[in-house]
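Worked example 2:
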Amino acid sequence: MRTFRLWSVSLGFALGLIVQVGFLTHHYALAAPTLGPEGAGWLIGATGFTGLLGRLLLARIADQVDTRLYSAGIFVVQAVVLGAIAYAPSPTMLIVMSLLYGFCLGQITTLSPIVVRREFGAAAFGAIYGLTGTIIQFCSAFGPVLYGVLVDQFGGYGPVLAIAAGFEICAALILILGRARR
């Protein structure tokens, strides 16, 4: 409990999931003005499908990658996606970036327990992931409210997505800084 390595997993994934849960909650409201209600519905369904594809990819490669670095890379990709939607809003950009975001989100919820298991071992997994998972889930519950407050404050999603992209970069940096020294 006193190691930055442990807290870096909790804080990194908590920041990332605050953004992710907030984005998913507000995805319809973000997409409907551009794509209409039916188009937004289809986009949300397709985003979920690309999430499944992302998990299938992770299942194939998880044993061959440094999961901390891979997770950080996923957070950076998500930051780029959110920045692209914020700064180049168009129907095509929204669709393509949403599908890419979905591909990444399918992996993030699976990566935190993999990181904990690898770094702290099977014997300590239950206790450590019990704490880590609780912190991550507790924090992620604030994502929708944070997005809502910021949308009200800024009057639109552009600045909110830019702030969310910054959170994703912070999550990536925290995960990288928490890597074990070899």
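Residues 4-177 form a domain with the Growth Hormone; Chain: A; fold (CATH 1.20.1250.20). Residues 12 and 66 are 15 Å apart (CA to CA).
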